[in-house]
Amino acid sequence: MPISRRALLAAVPATTLLAAARPLRARAAAGSSPAASADHATIIANTVAIFAGTTASNARPETAAKVASIESTARARLADLAGAGPNELFKGVPLGTNDANLTTSYRYLYEIALATRTPGVAPDLLDNATVQRQVIDALDWLHENYYGDQDAGYYGNWFNWEIGISQQVSKTLVLLADELAAYRPDLVGTYVASMDAYLRNGIDGDVNLDSRFHTGANLADITTNRILQGAVLGDDARVSKAIADQLTVFATVDPYHLHHGVTDGYYADGSFIQHASVAYTGSYGKGLLTRVVQTIKTLDGTSYARGDDLVGVVQGWVVNGFAPLIFEGWMMEIVKGRAVSRTTTGYADVGVVVEAVVDLATYASGADATALKGYVKFVRQNSRASLNPTSFVSPVSIVRYADILADASIPAADLNPPARNVAYNAMDRTVHRRPGYAFALSRSSTRISKYEYMNGENLMPWFQGDGAHYLYLSGQDQTQAFGIDYYTTVSPYRLAGVTAPVETRHTIPELYGLFWYENPELGFTSSSESQNTYVYFPCGTNGYSGGATLGPYGAAGLVQSNDAAYAAKQAGQLPDDFVVYRNADATKSWFMLDDEIVVLAAGVGDSAGRAVTTTIDTRIAGPTDAVTASGALRDGTAWSGTGTGKLAWLRYANASQATAVGYVFLDTPPVTVALDTVTRSRRVVRTSNPDTAVTKKVFAAIVEQAAGAPHTSMAYALVPNASEAQLRGYARGPLSVLANTTRLQAVKHARLGLVAANTFCDGVHHAEQLVVDGPASVILRHGPHGTVSVAVSDPTMNRDAISVTVRGRPRAVVTADEGVAVRQVPGGTRIDVTTRHAYGRSFTATLR
Shortest CA distance to 495 belongs to which of 700, 282, 713? Predict the structure, then answer.
């Protein structure tokens, strides 16, 4: 649907927001403002309304379940408070050595405090000063015994000490502000001083914008805590500076002009990165979205508010960053980092986004508000799982959600066009959408991590960034196709799309007996930079990862590489007991069309001589689902079931789920078809998962290469929702492979009039009409009235310019992006594209 100019304000440069922050920093330096007292009262009232609701919101029937949940949770916490044993505040939550338990204890106190401020709970809880003083006394006890001693604290995970505990405490201080003022006014200052002291990655108990810990979603959390603390303290300087610091997360990251060296945040192409190099929209990104929308709500009606500008920025995040990654109410796996190993579903992830969009729509206006509300309706109508608004944080949001659904004047409408290709080249991800399916691709490079492992989560992640793909089919409950059970039952060496050596790798806990590699003398501690670089989220060692987009069509390329740890070990930079793994070799391209995703792979093998498996696709199904595999050999002989053969095409079908995927083998070695029943515990991918056994049928189509076999190539097409008749028809076209080498990979689709090519090295490359100079990604398509459209991208991110010649009769320019120059040359038309500092962006030109 059309996006307003206001929504396009997502690409706000850092300099603009730095300028916007100057008055706030000046106010912080001044230390006070005539509006401060009223502003602080408004912040406190707004925050209470966010979490506890209002009398009006909680009188609505739609919030009854939420209010009941708040009340029942508080009663359970009070019972555990009364039943606590030695070294416990709450029964079953021992304290002293476990920082997560300390955070949990503070959360339980917050949940009790919340119930005392929630209109609609039973009278014995609402505004009960006795219960509130129980909470205050418990806060004092925790501080005295387990939190206040700075020398004894800060064990375990830094996040709990700098963010998690402060988050629970700050909200509790707001909820109980009046009772604290009457009963223990000293406790607020005591706690704030301790929270400041635990900001050890900050400066003098405050945010440090140069710290790698104080970026992106983490920075939003820290500054939100400080806004609330300042409001309760009446400290205008704290509030003003926290808002100014938080404004930095709204700025679009320019990788060529970094502020404070920070790569975390949103990029111009909609990418979101956290932890410096992890594609993270679906976990930290949604956390940041939630936090900044809450900030807009918290500051509403104050003199600090800059809601109008910020709403446009955040709306841009939703349109360009989130909407492409949500398929029928499911958050795609490619942007969840280690969270893919959690039992939380993609539907629950999207519920968090929907709440933020509901609230954002309240602050938008006109067509923007209608678009956001229409998207909320669209997600509700198209999700394969019902969205439970009781999961929303705010009762007020539940009411707003109900009002949107009940408003007949708002049409349900996707923020995505029906056909869309999105190249998130800044985070090495690609999304391709069509009616009936969505295809998501995960890549890696010297810029972006191959995977994220941490804290016993995502234990077997090794190949998740090596071209792993996820093909979502319309109408299917995605919990039956992906999510935690996909990673539990599918071998990590046989993720869909992956080329992997045949070997056994070991998890970090298996290797070192800890969740990390410990070697303080060499800089390896639980949260050190070396741990991040070589253990938690290592990048690749080849820079070629990216691709072009031309309208709804896309191309992507990847040169598979070893990770940074392997390279460092080979260079003698890591100790002998540090275990590294060598990758297999492959150069790959994906050409994303209407009915097909064409995959070319060349140089597939292993320079170390190991056996290698390339997985064309893997799908899971219920243990009793009616799954079949049928097809034909190249000589026309019918194929059915499992085994190895020289296949022309194959069709996977799950009659129980009414789903099917076709595979057309354009030029591929013999394919092995497997269908196994696998039972594993969800704990194999995450140590804290429940020990729940999962049984699935696992289908795989793979190409196996024996140890010592020469490198090979393969070309095939994935055809979502294909029928057998459709697959048989590919023998007559329209697909053809123009080249498939480690230098050049190119395809042609005759019916679409499309030629697409990825070039991987210096020199001149020829693909039908196209002549490409050096590494590039190029798509050409013939249009109406003799037009030809061309898109060009630099997948290396390092080239200053790319030249492409379209051979044939001379052509004139119809349209061309800025940075594109067109001129006639002997034998054709040359397109010169200035790609310097474009960071993989596609440039287009239309010729006639």
Answer: 700
The greatest distance separating any two alpha carbons of the chain, rounded to the nearest whole angstrom, comes to 89
Beta strand 788-793 pairing with 820-825: unpaired
* Inter-residue contact 320 to 366 (CB < 8 Å): no
Choose the weakest-confidence range: 4-13, 134-143, 445-454. 4-13
Mean pLDDT of all residues in 356-360: 98
CA torsion angle 121 124 125 129 (round to 10): 140
If one counts every other C-beta atom within 10 angstroms of the C-beta of residue 135, the result is: 25
Token pair listed for 593 = 């069309």
Residue 429 has what DSSP assignment?
E
Provide, rounded to the nearest whole percent, the portion of the chain with pLDDT above 90.
Answer: 94
Please report which confidence band the pLDDT of residue 3 belongs to, taking 50, 70 and 90 as the band edges. Answer: very low
- Strand segments (E) across 683-783: 693-705, 712-720, 735-740, 744-749, 754-759, 764-767, 770-773, 776-782
Using an 8 Å Cβ cutoff, are 470 and 333 in contact? Answer: yes
Pair 792, 843: CB distance under 8 Å: yes
Give Cβ neighbours of residue 789 (< 8 Å, ≥ 6 apart).
550, 551, 780, 781, 783, 844, 845, 846, 847
Q: What gap in Å lies between CA 298 and CA 228, rounded to an integer?
A: 9
For residue 61, say if its preceding peptide bond is cis, omega within 30 degrees of 0.
no
Instruction: Specify whether the CB–CB gap between 464 and 450 falls below 8 A.
Output: yes
User: Does the pLDDT value for residue 537 go beyond 60?
Assistant: yes
Local structure of residue 710 (DSSP, 8 states):
P
What average pLDDT does this structure show over 699-703?
98
- Buried b / exposed e along 313-323 (16+ C-beta atoms within 10 A): bbbbbbbbbbb
Question: What SS3 class is residue 30?
Answer: helix
Residues 6+ apart with CB under 8 A from 790: 550, 778, 779, 780, 804, 806, 831, 844, 845, 846, 847
Q: Identity (one letter) of the amino acid at 787?
A: T
Q: How far apart are CA 70 and CA 121, in angstroms?
A: 8
Calpha distance 776→770 (Å, rounded): 12
Cα(165)–Cα(162) distance, rounded to whole angstroms?
Answer: 7
Among 279, 164, 135, residue whose Cα is nearest residue 224: 164
Q: What is the pLDDT of residues 127-140, one digit of tens each?
A: 999 999 999 999 99
DSSP symbols for 789-826: EEEEE-TTS--SEEEEEEESS---EEEE-TTEEEEEET
pLDDT higher than threshold 50 for residue 329: yes
Helices (H) and strands (E) in the chain, counts: 22, 36
DSSP string, 491-545: -GGG-TT-EEES-----HHHHHSSSS--BGGGTB-TT-HHHIIIIIS-BBS---E
Cβ atoms within 10 Å, residue 59: 14
Burial class (CB within 10 angstroms; exposed 0-12, middle 13-18, buried 19+) of 609: exposed
Task: Give how far the C-alpha of residue 360 lies from the chain's centroid of Cα atoms, to the nearest Å.
Answer: 20
- State the Cα–Cα distance between residues 594 and 722, nearest whole angstrom: 12
8 Å CB contact between 2 and 418: no
* Cα–Cα distance measured from residue 760 to residue 43, given in angstroms and rounded to the nearest whole number: 55
pLDDT at residue number 30: 83
Q: Is the pLDDT of residue 6 over 60?
A: no
What's the rounded Cα separation, in Å, for the pair 458 and 536? Answer: 10
Nearest-Å Rg of the Cα atoms of the chain is 28
* Residues 564 and 817: beta-carbon distance below 8 Å: no
**Spatial separation of the C-alpha atoms in residues 578 and 519, rounded to whole Å:** 10
Half-sphere exposure at residue 642, Cβ-oriented, CA atoms within 13 angstroms: 8
| SS3 call for 34 | coil
Give how far Cα 92 sits from Cα of 85, 95, 114, 121, 814, Å. 8, 10, 22, 26, 71
Distance from C-alpha of 697 to C-alpha of 122, rounded to nearest angstrom: 49
Tokens of 821: 């120059």
